[in-house]
Every structure is written in C-alpha cells, then in structure tokens.
Design goal:
This protein has six helices and 22 strands. It is α+β, with helices and mostly antiparallel strands.
Amino acid sequence: MEQAVDVKKPSAKRALWIALAAVVTVVLCVAAVLFFLTVRDAKNVLRELTVEAGEALPQAADFLAEDQGAEAVFAEALPENMMSFPGDYNITLQYRRREYPAVIHVVDTTAPAGVTRDISQYLWEELPQAEDFLVECQDVTEVAVSFGIAPVPDQAGEQTVTLLLTDTSGNTTELPAALELIPDTQAPVITGVKDIVMYVGDTVSYRSGVTVTDDKDTNPTLEVDSSQADLSAAGTYEIVYIATDAAGNTTKVTAELEVHEKEEDFVDLETIYAMADEILEEIITPEMTTREQAEAVYKWIRQNMSYNADPEERDWPQAAYWMMKRRYGDCYNYFSLCKLMMERLGIPNIDVVKVKNFPGDSMHYWSLVSVDGGETWYHYDATPRIGGGDFCLVTDAYMDAFSAGYRNCFNRDKSLYPATPEE
C-alpha cells in the first residue's frame, strides 16, 4: 500500500509577491525597451544643422542622422524668407511621436558676384558714384557698393577704379572698372543775335530769338551785358552776349542797339509788322522752301517798287514802312524793306554797307541772306541798278564781277562778312 505525500500549497501572501515580481519584471523589460528606443531615437536626431544662405529651405528629414526616410516633421512651418537672413533659428522636430528641440544655423559664406561697366564722360561733369559702375549684382542678402579705388577728379584721360561689393555678412568682392574723363575745349555757339532798333520810351527784349547751343553741355548759360545802353537817349550802343558752358568755355557776340527819337510821322512797329505780314500772305505759300520765299519777296519788290534817289534819314523799320506806303524809295528803302521781310519770315540776314571809293561817293546798302539757317550766305539786293543785274542770292564772285564793271559799286570790307559759296 502506497504512502500518501503531503504537498503544501503556497500561502496567499507568497503568491502575491510572486505576481508582483512578475509584473515588475515585465514593466522593467518594457521600460528598458522604451529607454533603449528613446536613446536610439534621440541619437538619430541632430540638434544643430548648418545651411548656406540662399539654398532651399531644409527639410525635417535633414535632422536625421540615419533612416532619412522615416517620418519627421517640423512642429511649425519654417519662415519662407529664412534663407535670405543669416542667423540662428530655434525649431522643434517631431519624430516618432516625440518632439526634439534643435537649431538651424543659416550662414552666409559666399561673396557677392557682380558685373561692372566702363564709363566715359566729360571732365566737367559730376563724377559718377560707385553704383553707377555696377550693371548687375547677385547675392542673397543686401549688398553695399563702395569704392576701393575712387575716381580722381580733374584728371583727363582714362583711370582705373575698383568697386567693393560687401554683403551683410561681411563677405566682400572687389571688381575693376574704367573711367574716362574727356576734356571740353569747344566753346558754345550763340545764334539769333541781331542789331536792335527801338525808340526812346520803349522797352526792349535782348534775349528774344537768341539761343545758345554747345556740343557737350546741354544747358549753357547766357548773359547779356547792356550796361552801356541808355534807353532814354537816342544813340547807338553796344550789347554784348556772353555764353558759357559747364567747362568754362565762353563765346562773346556783340550787337548794336539803335535808340531813335520818334519823329512826327512815327509809325509804331506793330503797324509796320502788320503791313509787311499782309503782303507776305499774298506772295508766300505754305509749301515754299526758304529759298523760294526769299525769291518771292525779291520778285515782288522788284515788280511793285520804284527807285527814287531822294534819300530820307530814317531808321530801317520806318524806311521800310514808307517804302511800302509810297511804293518808291532809294537804296536804303529797298534794303530796309528786304530786311523787314526777311525778319518777318525768320530768314537770317546780315546788313552790308558799301565802302566809299572816294569822299563824294554815294552810299549803298544791301543784305547777306542765308536760306539754310545760317550755314551759307548769299548777297541779296533788290535795288534796281544801271546796267541791270539780278542780285537775288548771288555769290561774291558775281557781285565782284558786276562791281568791277560799274565804278566799284559793291565795294565792301570783306573781312566783316562771311564768304559766300563759289557757286
């Protein structure tokens, strides 16, 4: 007969401790696993990332040392313009359900790039600034432009300058350029200066119709010296026109101001001009060239005026008026009427006065006229002459040949007048 074995059952307290030990073991194992995973993940996340300014925005995966394909995101979107402003940016990375603080260092180590141009200008002009030499500049940040070697003023010829391109991070690029300073020795040109006729008590505009041009300076100055003129007293006075360009080159042109007393039968200029304009409306058409206009005036005067050798001592506007009024006059009246018509048409003209061949020789007056704006000049004399002759826009050679056959009637000081073309 077998003997029975007495097996003792564990007490309830012991069972509890065993259960607790099992739970703790499981918890410790889970904690160990979690700790291992946390440490592993933390090691995989970079806490700093350095990127070059101007590049594309970094991605969250760029912060993973390994397993870049894993899902990682920024807790907040990065600023769109961050790569244009170097600096340190604190961010938070979400990776495997955890958040990791990190820093993005945006650095700028690239110097600016640029393209320069050479400049050529006149010596008197204001020197260009550094920016004037720069055609193009590339950099992710703002760039300051300055001279490394600045232009030297008042130095004619070509010189080398250098530009310094410096960005906000202190990166600097030096670029060369050339500056040419051209001297200006050409004086300005004054046109439209004419002798002026006025009357005691009237006012005068010295600058009317006068222009100044210069081959380099677009705004030369003009001064009018009328200090010698006395508008309250009859007489002939010198007026001096002085033009100056930016380089200091000057031109002087003189004119005469004739101040006359008003005679009893004085006719005001407005009336004289109106009478002349009425005649011009009859003989001038819009399609006419300047030469054709001058020829039409010459033809009309020859056909409608007659010669009278009884001279009248008058100024030329009054002499022209009485010629139109009476339809006759002497050579001075013919000259005055031609001059009046040219003035009203805006055709440049120069007064020509005969040089007497002997003390009792008669005087004579005529004009030089330009039909191309003052480039070339021709003689213009509507006075009828013994021996005939047509003196509408003729050359020096023509006048001299006729003069030689008729008592040197066109004798003149040629040094005072521009020469005509040969034909």
